[in-house]
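quick one: iron/sulfur cluster bound model?
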Amino acid sequence: MRSVDVATITKVVARLCEEANFYLEQSVHSAFQRAYEEEISPLGRDVLTQILANAAVAAEKRLPICQDTGIVLVLVELGQEVHVSGGSLYAAINQGVRDAYQKCYLRKSVVNDPIERTNTKDNTPAVIHCRIVDGDKMRISLMPKSAGSENVSTVKVLNPADGWEGIKKFVLETIDQAGPNPCPPLIVGIGMGGTMEKAALLAKEALFRPVGQKNPTETIAHLEDELLDAINKLGIGPMGRGGRITALAVHIEVFPTHMSSLLVAVNLLCCAARYKTAEI
Ligand code: SF4
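yep, here:
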């Protein structure tokens, strides 16, 4: 059994919060540069130039990429040979979020209750999902998730007879209705199968895949390409200003499901695509 102290976890989470808010993920940065080459709309190209300039200033001055510094989403893959020592895993993660958001003056966006809505003043609690895996390592993936892109994400129960065409229609309708609100160009995470909550979690996990990395199953990778092409024909363009580039990537994750079910979730990630991962 390998022991990992909670103080280490807190420090790693605080570092990931800082890095995610200040530095655009490299694969996203490269995707924006490719998008600039492919975009034909002058307004769209102008927006992409501004997105890249904004990212450069944020990195240089250690300023947030966007004013909405999000609610913090944390995915933990916890090796079953790891013993978390000195306290609670969830408390350690929340302390890391608290430390980073206070030290770096990041906007605190979390309210205590969906109805009462009092700001918790330290951006906690984080939304934490923990999965037990083989091994003696702990992998922490973290994303400050904006309201703009989360608020237009959705889950739907389709009829299995709807098939791929039904899924495609649902995804395109979701993105079309969202229009400029999630601040495109987007990364589109799609979860298919499982149960309602499993599809939603798959869609979220799909967002953490480096942009440009396809699903390892060839048929699913082909569907990702087909859907990206269809989304970019909607003409929404960067920040809704029109153009070719509405999405940088489509990432699909799938899971076995009940023979009478077809669950589909669409989770969108805006142009402030912030996520970081560390292994302890
Ligand atoms: S959707 Fe993204 S880019 Fe738009 S305001 Fe929110 S965090 Fe910023």
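Helices lie at 6-22, 26-38, 42-61, 89-103, 147-150, 163-178, 196-206, 218-232.
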